[in-house]
Automatic annotation (TrEMBL):
Keyword annotations of the record: Repeat
Protein name per its UniProtKB record: Leucine-rich repeat-containing N-terminal plant-type domain-containing protein
A Pfam entry, by short name: LRR_1
Organism: Arcella intermedia
Lineage: Eukaryota, Amoebozoa, Tubulinea, Elardia, Arcellinida
Length: 92
C-alpha cells in the first residue's frame, strides 16, 4: 500500500480513532475521511505525508490540538477540518 495515492472513505459511519500509522503512506495525495465518526486526535506523523495535497476530515469527532507537523505539509492545497472539536490555532 506504499504506492497508494488516494483514500476516499467519506460518508461511511466509520468509527474509531485517527490511524496512528498514516505516515507510512508516503505517496498519499488525497485523504478524504469526512462525514464519519472518527475520534481522538490527529497523530503527529501526519507530517510524514509530504505528497498530501487534499485533506478532508470535516464532520467527525476529532478533538484536541492540531499537531505542529501539519505545517510540514508543503504541498497541501486544501485542508478542511470544520465541524470537529479542535481547540487550537493553526500551526505555522
Amino acid at each position: 500500500m506504499v504506492n497508494l495515492t488516494s483514500i476516499d472513505l467519506q460518508n461511511n459511519q466509520i468509527g474509531g480513532t485517527f490511524p496512528t500509522n498514516i505516515g507510512q503512506l508516503s505517496n498519499l495525495k488525497n485523504l478524504s475521511i469526512q462525514n464519519n465518526q472518527i475520534s481522538g486526535t490527529i497523530t503527529p506523523n501526519i507530517g510524514m505525508l509530504k505528497s498530501l495535497t487534499h485533506f478532508y476530515i470535516q464532520n467527525n469527532l476529532i478533538s484536541g490540538l492540531l499537531p505542529q507537523e501539519i505545517g510540514l505539509l508543503s504541498k497541501l492545497q486544501i485542508l478542511d477540518f470544520s465541524y470537529n472539536q479542535f481547540y487550537s490555532t493553526l500551526p505555522g
